[in-house]
Amino acid sequence: MRRWEQYFTPQSLEEAIFLLDKYKGAGKIIGGGTDLIPQFRDNKEESKYLVDVTQIPEMKEISLLEDSFVIGGAVTHAQLAGSQDVYNYAQVLAEATVCVGSPQIRNMGTISGNIVNAQPAADGAIALTALDAQVHITSADGEKVVPITELYRGVGKSKVDSTIEVISKIEFKKIDKVQNVSSAFERLASRKALALPMVNVAVCLKTTGGQFDWARIAIGPVAQMPFRPFLIEDELRGMPTDEESIRIIAEEVSQLVQPRSSKLRGSADYRKEMVKVLVGRALMKAIARLGSEPY
Amino acid sequence: MTVLKMKLNGKQVEVEIKPSDLLLNVLRDKLGLMGTKEGCGEGDCGACTVILDGETVTSCITPALKAMGKEVITIEGLSDGKELHPIQKAFVEYGAIQCGYCTPAMILSAKALLDKNPTPTREEIKTAISGNLCRCGGYEYIIAAIQSLIKP
Ligand SMILES: Cc1cc2nc3c(=O)[nH]c(=O)nc-3n(C[C@H](O)[C@H](O)[C@H](O)COP(=O)(O)OP(=O)(O)OC[C@H]3O[C@@H](n4cnc5c(N)ncnc54)[C@H](O)[C@@H]3O)c2cc1C
Ligand code: FES
Ligand code: FES
Q: Structure pTM?
């Protein structure tokens, strides 16, 4: 196992940025370490200075504002899965984060690590993609805000350079039933715990008078990054929210995606079929949640 | 070298470590606490589970310095040296231990659950131990042992 030389635990974002700036590329942010430490173990990581952001108070908060959420960059999956606010106003994120790994992994792993590790089926990132999350990235040069969909360079490759940049917080509009907006997450895996998804799907949608106003659909792992079928999302505006339309939409999405065959995660054909099933289910579930009955 | 200060099983300890040490190795190799086991070393099997500030973590992928100033509980911290802890007793009584390799970690996952939620449902128990693999496969006995601790 390759090892880092020094380990810092700054108490503020400024201090974290200062350290990264000081080491000019030889340092790196660590959150829970659930991706990074195994990478050291596999000799794939060689940063000399680790900067742990999990003790920075403002990065550990979940804030529900008037019409949006602000999630601190070091918030863990367990925090999100256990938050009543998230359950009420961003259910897709609660449902996705409770699927991550195991209780231990959820206690350690952070939402920013899930984004920067850039796996195309990372559960938290799939949910945030459907939520159209805006990611706040801070470096010595200042802060920028980038939509999550623009943060990917390829499988396992993020545009966030965690040797110089920190995700300080993540923001998205709250999902409010009162405004006819709802969300849902569906996942297929070989076991209920400690199994990476064969397919996962997150949706957020708004309806008006029995028709789709808009819907955002995020699917993994069917492309190099969390996949949004933008064309189909455009087409479905104004379509009725009945079973027949959902069947058509799910079929079209399934035609569009190009999953790869994997010995662990199933053949391409099987996964295409499962994309259809899961997209259908997620849409149905989100729509049912707008009804008066709890779903 | 650097000094890790933490509250370990109720006592304040100071131990000299390398900044790159993992919590598992500090516990086993520097502090001689062999109850914490290494299985996979990758966060998958849960054999190395300890409780860090009330939450279970897999110590094999936890940098030791994450415990700085915090409270760590390992299996050695449960019994007072004379009597077994009630969870340990229940595991013995219900035959929830076969080879025993997963047991210390399994008991700590049960403890973290019961400390927060003294009346868990069967589903909640299953979730709480879902990150602890038992290669002997005696899950039903483990669940029964934990259920026996729920006070009506
Ligand atoms: C046993 C096991 C099971 C798992 N199961 C799942 C699963 O089911 N679903 C899933 O999606 N993932 C899973 N994972 C992967 C992992 O737990 C998640 O991706 C987790 O969210 C990573 O977060 P972290 O804080 O641990 O990241 P770290 O390992 O700390 O960091 C990962 C990367 O992100 C960067 N980074 C971290 N925080 C920041 C920040 N604030 N700003 C900038 N860069 C940052 C780091 O520099 C590093 O490059 C699993 C991992 C393990 C070990
Ligand atoms: S040894 Fe740590 S999880 Fe397997
Ligand atoms: S008792 Fe043998 S691994 Fe669980």
A: 0.97
Q: Is the CB of A32 under 6 A from ligand 1?
A: yes
Nearest to A176 by CA among A205, A203, A217, A209: A205
Q: Helix (H, G, I), strand (E, B), or coil: what is residue A85? A: helix
Cβ separation of A194 and B131 shorter than 8 Å? yes
* DSSP annotation string for B18-47: -TT-BHHHIIIIIT--TTS--SSSSSSS-T
Q: Is A29:A152 a contact under the CB 8 Å cutoff?
A: no
Asked if A3 contacts A40 with a C-beta cutoff of 8 angstroms, the reply is yes
pLDDT in tens, B62-74: 999 999 999 999 9
Rounded to the nearest angstrom, the distance between the alpha carbon of A102 and the centre of ligand 2 is 12
Instruction: Please name every residue paired with A167 in a beta bridge, in sequence order, or none if there are none.
Output: A137
Distance CA A8, CA A228 (A): 37
Among A7, A9, A19, A29, say which to mutate for ligand 1: greatest number of ligand atoms within 8 Å of CB.
Answer: A29
Q: Are B111 and B90 in contact (CB under 8 A)?
A: no
**pLDDT exceeds cutoff 80 at A294:** no
Give the residue whose CA is nearest to atom 4 of ligand 1. Answer: A101
Q: What are A207's two structure tokens?
A: 């309806």
Q: The sheet that has A166-173: what strands, in order across it? A: A62-64, A68-72, A166-173, A134-139, A142-147
Nearest to A9 by CA among A25, A39, A33: A33
ipTM of the complex: 0.98
Domain identity same for A3 and A136 = yes
Residue A262 DSSP class: B
Judged by CB atoms closer than 8 Å, whether chains meet at A37 and B49 is answered as no
Q: Is residue B34 part of a domain?
A: yes
Residue B92, in any domain of the structure? yes
The alpha carbon torsion through A238, A241, A243, A244 (nearest 10 deg) reads: -10
Rounded distance, CA A45 to CA A101, Å?
22
Three-state DSSP class for residue A271: helix
Query: Comparing C-alpha atoms, which of B16, B80, B27 is closest to residue B49?
Result: B27
Q: How many domains does chain B have?
A: 2
Q: pLDDT tens for residues A249-283?
A: 999 999 999 988 888 788 999 999 999 999 999 99
Q: Indicate the number of domains in chain A.
A: 2
Q: Per the CB < 8 Å rule, is B61 touching A37?
A: yes
Domain that holds residue B31: 2-77
- Short-list B51, B146, B46, B63, CA closest to B108: B51
